[in-house]
UniProtKB/TrEMBL annotation:
<dbReference type="GO" id="GO:0005576">
    <property type="term" value="C:extracellular region"/>
</dbReference>
<protein>
    <submittedName>
        <fullName>Ca2+-binding protein, RTX toxin-related</fullName>
    </submittedName>
</protein>
<feature type="domain" description="Hedgehog/Intein (Hint)">
    <location>
        <begin position="616"/>
        <end position="754"/>
    </location>
</feature>
<dbReference type="InterPro" id="IPR011049">
    <property type="entry name" value="Serralysin-like_metalloprot_C"/>
</dbReference>
<keyword id="KW-0964">Secreted</keyword>
<dbReference type="InterPro" id="IPR050557">
    <property type="entry name" value="RTX_toxin/Mannuronan_C5-epim"/>
</dbReference>
<dbReference type="GO" id="GO:0016539">
    <property type="term" value="P:intein-mediated protein splicing"/>
</dbReference>
<dbReference type="InterPro" id="IPR001343">
    <property type="entry name" value="Hemolysn_Ca-bd"/>
</dbReference>
<dbReference type="GO" id="GO:0005509">
    <property type="term" value="F:calcium ion binding"/>
</dbReference>
<dbReference type="InterPro" id="IPR018511">
    <property type="entry name" value="Hemolysin-typ_Ca-bd_CS"/>
</dbReference>
<dbReference type="Pfam" id="PF00353">
    <property type="entry name" value="HemolysinCabind"/>
</dbReference>
<dbReference type="InterPro" id="IPR006141">
    <property type="entry name" value="Intein_N"/>
</dbReference>
<feature type="region of interest" description="Disordered">
    <location>
        <begin position="473"/>
        <end position="504"/>
    </location>
</feature>
<dbReference type="Pfam" id="PF13403">
    <property type="entry name" value="Hint_2"/>
</dbReference>
<dbReference type="InterPro" id="IPR028992">
    <property type="entry name" value="Hedgehog/Intein_dom"/>
</dbReference>
<dbReference type="InterPro" id="IPR036844">
    <property type="entry name" value="Hint_dom_sf"/>
</dbReference>
Length: 814
């Protein structure tokens, strides 16, 4: 039922009890009341205020002996100045009998009954004529023709006839009675509504609004397909607090029913649906034309069709799915769940903490205000994400590709990603959650810290220049915090965690982890497992909270990145052991670096214990077994005799060396050396070798060679990629044939000139070998010229964690 605001008119003192043309209106304070379609107007006309709003058309009412005016447009009304009634047309009134009422060419008010008679039942015919007319009809079966103009056609309280109402031309407002009415909007942009009874509403041409409330019975609605084909079907509540169900059964057609009443019906030729203040369910899956839906209030569920739909949740916590087609989704306020579906969609969350998914097609997701979550799947194709304001998160889902996601930042909160078939850009995003597979994230171009949560998989993460929080999850992860005070959690399995610059907090958690705080004063937690804590020059003062020397879980220090005052690698004699004043050991190194081991009594740290913890006694170079004893490799020369395992003493025929700088290792991480911890084989101190170097092992009685890089991955805690070494010089010893020599009391291979090894050498080194073995360099293979390998290489898949069996031969030399 329509409601109107009526403003009291303070007529001049000569007012004779009825408004008429020429009556003056004195200025006064605003007094207003609400009129409805049940109230009887006095007539229509115009009031004029010369200096403010000018001439204003409207309808006059009487209440308690006072005159009130309902303006057609109440902008700036009332103006608080003196005015004049410049036009007044008294209402045309019918009788209880069968009337034939004719309006004028002006703006008429036609009332089809005498107010003093209750429920008049005359069968009337009303022709309002031209002008903007107001028609109120009674209980009879009336025929009403609005004619031209913007007419208002309503009913008197209790009107129950079966009426035929035709608005005619113009933008009409029509409300039916409680009978079975037929309402025709005609041309123009009309506002139409039925009432109780079985109504038929044909909106006709124009952009019409048809409204159904939950106190109606049944309505058949036809929107019309005129030149301006955009008709709105809206729903609202009068008697219940439950929403409406709308289901499309074909293009622009469907059915509706209120859940809290018996109101139901069918419709066709509708392009726009507006829900109630409560939770509505709108299903467009049967439509192919593309519709607009506004959920309005309540927690709505909206499902799009196969056309290009425009779906708006408005207020409430809505769930919207676009279906097929290039859809536009707006969540509005509330915590909404939005899914674009197939097609090139635009999805906007609006206010609230929303969840957005693009689906197949080239989609654009915009979070708006609130803490939003964006879901990206590996089958989504191209999806761009703009987080909007507040705190926004992208969650990547790898359901079938198995490749994981690659995320590259190009600025603060922005970058690009690739995941299976999906790729796109993102901006204004504060948090990333990666997949269960091996993911790669590089945030080094961002000055703003990132928050990253990883699922399973062996992930590689490079942090930003800000304060990052990185949760690595399961898998053997490699995490570098970059600059800034970072917080990094390794999760389970064997992780490599580097804090970089800044005061970082690193937690290895479960597994045999490698932790390097980098520059700055860092706090380190190894967690369970045999962990390695690495130090470096200019590394600051680090605190380790759970260093273990209990014989069950044995942690290590990696000081290969530290040097003494002369630039030589540090050894146990360079370490000063102190106390932090609370019984915790403090190790100080020559250039000012230090590390505090909470829970470790400094009195227990003698040279033997420091050695077991990973601080070497000698670091001049790898020692090679010769008839004169073990000699550092850098002191050997061509022609020197070396002890071999199979052929006694043999002369060196060629020595190669290759220095790799910090930049070289950064650009080629596969060339990083492998550290074999003291005691892991027969070595009584750490042994540093190249990743492809072969170490003698045994597997089920078969003496073989195992590459150092494979041992670092699968051979146990005693074998690690030496990430703490900033630069390295590799030496190659070559003999007349491939030999097994003794390095640091451990059998390992000499240089074998296979194609891979030769390709890794500098041209000058290849020329040297060519001078010694000219046929070798020009041959297609080394076996016929140089001979076979001393032992076969063990494939990686055969390497197990049965350390006692795997390294039986090596330990026999101890």
């Amino acid at each position: 039922m329509a409601k109107y605001i009526g403003y009291r008119l303070y007529l001049d003192s000569d007012y004779d009890g009825a408004a008429s043309t020429g009556d003056g209106i004195s200025g006064g304070y605003e007094t207003s009341i609400i009129f409805t379609d049940h109230d009887m107007p006095l007539g229509s006309g115009v009031v004029t205020y010369p200096t403010t709003v000018g001439a204003v058309s409207g309808v006059f009412y009487e209440y308690s002996g006072n005159t009130y005016f309902v303006p057609d447009d109440d902008t700036g009304f009332p103006p608080y100045e003196a005015g004049t009634i410049t036009e007044f047309v008294e209402a045309i009134r019918g009788t209880p009998n069968n009337d034939n009422l004719e309006g004028t060419a002006g703006d008429d008010v036609i009332i089809d009954t005498d107010e003093s008679i209750h429920n008049p039942t005359g069968v009337d015919r009303i022709r309002a004529g031209e002008g903007d007319d107001t028609v109120i009809f009674g209980d009879g079966n009336d025929t009403i023709d609005g004619g031209g103009g913007n007419d208002k056609i309503g009913f008197w309280s209790g009107g129950s006839g079966n009426n035929l109402i035709d608005g005619g031309a113009g933008d009409d407002s029509i409300i039916g009675g409680s009978g079975d009415d037929q309402i025709i909007g005609g041309s123009g942009n009309d506002w139409l509504s039925g009432d109780a009874g079985r109504d038929t509403i044909d909106a006709g041409d124009g952009m019409d609004n048809i409204w159904v409330t939950d106190d109606h019975d049944y309505a058949k609605i036809i929107g019309g397909e005129g030149y301006s084909d955009w008709d709105v079907l809206g729903f609202s509540n009068w008697v219940s607090s439950e929403g409406v169900n709308v289901k499309m059964t074909g293009p622009e057609s469907g059915t509706f029913e209120f859940r809290g009443s018996e109101t139901h019906g069918e419709f066709s030729e509708i392009e726009h649906i507006v829900g109630t203040d409560y939770g509505d369910a709108v299903d467009l899956s049967g439509d192919t034309s593309g519709l607009k839906v506004q959920g309005y209030g309540g927690d709505d569920t909206i499902r799009g069709g196969s056309g290009a739909d425009s779906l708006h949740g408005d207020w409430g916590n809505d769930q919207i799915s676009g279906g097929q087609g290039a859809d536009t989704l707006f969540g509005g306020s509330g915590d909404d769940v939005l899914a674009g579906g197939d097609g090139d969609d635009y999805v906007e969350g609006g206010e609230g903490s929303d969840t957005l998914t693009g689906g197949a097609g080239e989609d654009t997701l915009f979070g708006g205000d609130g803490n939003d979550v964006f879901n990206i799947y590996d089958a989504d194709e191209d999806t761009d994400v703009d987080g909007g304001g507040w705190w926004d998160t992208i969650v990547f889902h790898d359901e079938s590709s198995g490749e994981g996601v690659e995320v590259i930042y190009d600025g603060d909160g922005s970058g690009e990603y690739e995941l299976g078939d999906a790729e796109g850009d993102f901006s204004d995003v504060e948090m990333i959650q990666t997949t269960q597979n091996a993911d790669f994230v590089d945030a080094s171009a961002s000055d703003q810290g990132i928050l990253l949560v990883s699922d399973d998989g062996a992930d590689t993460v490079v942090g930003s220049a800000g304060a990052d929080e990185i949760w690595a999850g399961d898998g053997e992860d490699s995490i570098s915090g970059g600059r800034g005070a970072d917080k990094i959690w390794g999760g389970s399995e064997n992780d490599t965690i580097q804090g970089g610059e800044g005061g970082d907090t690193l937690k290895g958690e479960i597994g045999d982890d490698f932790l390097s705080g980098g520059k700055g004063n860092d706090v380190l937690y190894g967690g369970s497992g045999d962990d390695v804590f690495a130090m470096q020059d200019d590394g600051g003062f680090d605190v380790v909270h759970d260093f273990r020397l209990d014989g069950v879980e044995h942690d290590q220090l990696d000081v290969t990145g530290l040097t003494d005052a002369s630039g030589n690698p540090v050894n146990v004699h360079d370490v000063t052991v102190g106390d932090d004043g609370c019984g915790n050991a403090v190790l100080s190194f020559p250039n000012g670096e230090g590390i505090q081991l909470n829970g470790i009594d400094p009195a227990t740290l003698d040279n033997k214990t420091l050695f077991k913890m990973g601080i070497p006694c000698f670091a001049e170079g790898t020692r090679i077994r010769t008839p004169q004893g073990d000699i550092p490799i850098e002191r050997l020369q061509v022609g020197d005799m070396v002890q071999t395992l199979d052929n006694g003493v043999q002369p060196i025929v060629w020595i190669g060396r290759r220095h790799l700088s910090q930049q070289d290792l950064k650009e080629n991480p596969k060339l990083r050396p492998v550290r074999i911890r003291a005691g892991s084989l027969a070595n009584d101190r750490d042994l540093i070798v190249s990743p492809q170097h072969g170490m003698v092992t045994t597997q089920n009685g078969d003496v073989t060679l195992a590459r150092a890089t494979h041992l670092a991955r699968d051979g146990g805690a005693g074998f690690r990629v030496a990430l703490g070494i900033k630069s390295v010089t590799y030496f190659h010893l070559m003999f007349e044939h491939h030999e097994v020599i003794i390095a640091e009391n451990t059998p390992s291979e000499s240089f074998y000139p296979g194609p891979m090894a030769l390709n890794a050498l500098a041209p000058a080194e290849i020329a040297e070998i060519a001078a010694i073995f000219p046929e070798l360099v020009s041959s297609s293979g080394p076996v016929d010229i140089y001979g076979p390998r001393a032992r076969r290489f063990l494939p990686r898949q055969e390497i197990t964690r049965n350390v006692a069996s795997l390294f039986e031969v090596g330990r026999a030399f101890a």
